[in-house]
Design a protein that fits this description.
- The chain is α/β, with parallel strands linked by helices and about 350 residues long.
- The protein is about 30% helix and about 25% strand.
- It has ten helices and 19 strands.
- The radius of gyration is 21 Å and the shape is elongated.
- The model has no long low-confidence stretch (mean pLDDT about 95).
- It binds flavin-adenine dinucleotide.
- Flavin-adenine dinucleotide binds next to helix 1, strand 2, helix 6 and helix 8.
- Belongs to the FAD-dependent oxidoreductase family.
- This is Oxidoreductase.
Length: about 350
Amino acid sequence: MVSSIGRKRVVIIGGGIAGSVLAKSLQDHTDVYLIDPKEYFEISWASLRCIVEPAFAERTLINHSEYAPNAHIITSAATSITETEVTTANGRVISYDYLVIASGHDDKSEFTKKERIHHYKQDQQKIKSASSILIVGGGPVGVELAGEISVDFPDKKVTLVHRGSRLLEFVGEKASKKAHKWLNKKNVEIILEQSVNLNSKTNGVYHTSGGQSIIADCHFLCVGKPIASSWLKDTMLHNCLDNKGRLMVDENMRVKGYRNIFAVGDITDVKEMKQGYLAQMHSGVVAKSIKSLVNGKEKLEAYKGGPQMAIVSLGRKEAVAQISSMTMSGCLPGKMKSGDLFVSKTRKTLGVKST
Ligand SMILES: Cc1cc2nc3c(=O)[nH]c(=O)nc-3n(C[C@H](O)[C@H](O)[C@H](O)COP(=O)(O)OP(=O)(O)OC[C@H]3O[C@@H](n4cnc5c(N)ncnc54)[C@H](O)[C@@H]3O)c2cc1C
């Protein structure tokens, strides 16, 4: 840890991709405090592969201290803020010159890497010992998990139940249809416009809202995680949350009405797809601004937006992609994402060994 005397203090709340990239980039310029409830950063878009192949998690979980050795890591959740300080669940009160909120989505993951890997091993065991599996939720998490299981465990009977009228509602209909067709080809049964009461399971049978019975040995709940902003509702920032609970930011990614409080990543109300590569662009913009501010310059960077692109992997080799208004599926988008799931690229961004 380098000496922090005389440096401006930046407190970053949240150690997802947005907060981690920012902490890495500011740690040698300012006195950085990174607050996250876990000891590690997880490459979240690679987590479904870890369920079918727990060893993959050795590369997708990176301790915060590994990529940000010069930052102070506070392993706890932020619970409150004032104009000068942040309070955490473990009773720390940390003052700041600049605050960056990057709390993205609520994450109830395990505290250590070891515990997280153990969880993945249990999930894999659950799949191995089942002959039929129910996946609840047809957003990116449910679709990617169905893809992983159907490719790695083709003998398992997979049923996916989704409340919406089509899979992957965050992309266009063409991409939804391509994913639907691909899963059907892999014998995944898809039930739309129904929900499952998971407590209603009797003798290995789950019941849907539409009266259907699904025989499954186990289930995975794959519904999206809520935005992690409920803790802000009793703070001075309650007026800065939009009706979806996102923080309203200006073109410099500053929380509206505040000069020294920024927000980055999925927690922000920027009108764009919520994607990790865009979260990293937010962090790049804020890093430049804070470096300039601590050097006494008032020059702030503006966020101009990035390409609108989403790739949903379908097992290890294929994917469906929407790039602007173009949709494609198969091995070409699969080559872009599905083999390594951007793990090497992300590790490189964070400056950790690619092994
Ligand atoms: C299945 C799936 C596939 C995806 N594929 C891609 C892809 O291919 N490419 C891509 O670019 N994006 C992809 N995404 C989107 C990407 O995962 C998100 O956009 C990205 O993770 C957002 O990063 P974030 O740092 O803003 O938030 P998060 O990743 O949600 O991180 C937030 C962090 O803040 C912490 N936190 C929460 N509350 C508090 C608190 N009170 N105090 C302190 N810390 C807190 C959390 O524990 C977490 O560590 C995918 C998403 C899913 C679900």
